[in-house]
Design brief:
alpha/beta, 39% helix
C-alpha cells in the first residue's frame, strides 16, 4: 500500500502531463499518481453494455478517482477522462499509430463531433463531486496532403490525444467552428473544478 498522502490536498489520479500542466497553470498544487485501473477492460465492458459517450467518460473518471482514493487514504483525489463521439454516437479512441491517426482525421474531416470531458473527485474512497462538460467541434474538410503532413509533423504531440489534435497548438487549424470551453476540449471541465476546490478550501475564494 502507498504511504498516506497528506500534502498536497489534491491528488490527480493520472500521469497525464497535459492535465497536470493545466491544473498547475491555474495555480493548483497537485500530486500525480497512477490509478492502476485497467481502462481498456473497463471501457470494453461498458461499451458492450451500450453506455453513452457521456456516461462512459463519467464512469472512467470515477473509477480512477475511487481506486486511487481507496489506496492512499486522506486526500481529495481527482479522476478525469475524455470521450469523443461522432454524430451517429460511435466513439473514437486514441490512435494506435500514424496510419490510425490519419484514418481518424479522414473520418472526422468535414463533420461535427462532440468531446465529453468528465471529472470526478473522491474522498475516502467515495465520489463526492462530479461534472461532465461537452464541446461540439466542426472539422473543416481536410485534404489528404494536409492530413499526411500534419500527422507526420505532430505525431509526438497527438499520439495520446483522442481526435488527434491539441486545440491549444497547431490542432486549431483543423476546425471551422467550435462551441464549448477550451479547457473542456483540452480534457477537464476546469472552471467547474476550480469552483469546487474553493468550496473545499483547497484554493482560496
Amino acid at each position: 500500500m502507498d504511504d498516506p498522502v497528506t500534502e498536497p490536498m489534491l491528488v490527480l489520479a493520472s500521469k497525464s502531463k497535459a492535465r497536470r500542466a493545466m491544473l498547475e497553470a491555474a495555480g493548483v498544487v497537485i500530486e500525480s499518481l497512477a490509478p492502476n485501473v485497467d481502462e481498456e477492460a473497463l471501457k470494453d465492458g461498458l461499451q458492450a453494455d451500450g453506455v453513452t459517450a457521456r456516461n462512459l467518460a463519467d464512469a472512467l473518471a470515477e473509477a480512477k478517482a475511487v481506486r486511487l482514493s481507496r489506496r492512499i487514504g486522506p486526500a481529495l483525489v481527482l479522476g478525469g477522462d475524455q470521450v469523443l463521439a461522432l454524430e451517429d454516437g460511435s466513439m473514437l479512441d486514441k490512435p494506435l499509430d500514424r496510419d490510425d491517426a490519419k484514418a481518424h482525421l479522414q473520418l472526422l474531416s468535414g463533420k461535427k463531433h462532440k468531446l465529453f470531458s468528465a471529472a470526478v473527485i473522491a474522498d475516502q474512497g467515495s465520489p463526492v463531486w462530479r461534472h461532465v462538460d461537452i464541446a461540439t467541434l466542426t472539422m473543416r474538410p481536410l485534404s489528404e496532403t494536409f492530413i499526411e503532413s500534419y500527422v507526420e509533423a505532430e505525431w509526438d504531440n497527438i499520439r495520446h490525444c483522442v481526435g488527434c489534435y491539441e486545440i491549444e497548438a497547431r490542432g486549431v487549424q483543423l476546425f471551422s467552428d467550435i462551441k464549448g470551453n477550451q479547457f473542456t476540449i483540452m480534457g477537464l471541465p476546469l472552471l467547474h473544478l476550480l469552483d469546487y476546490l474553493r468550496v473545499r478550501g483547497v484554493m482560496t475564494s
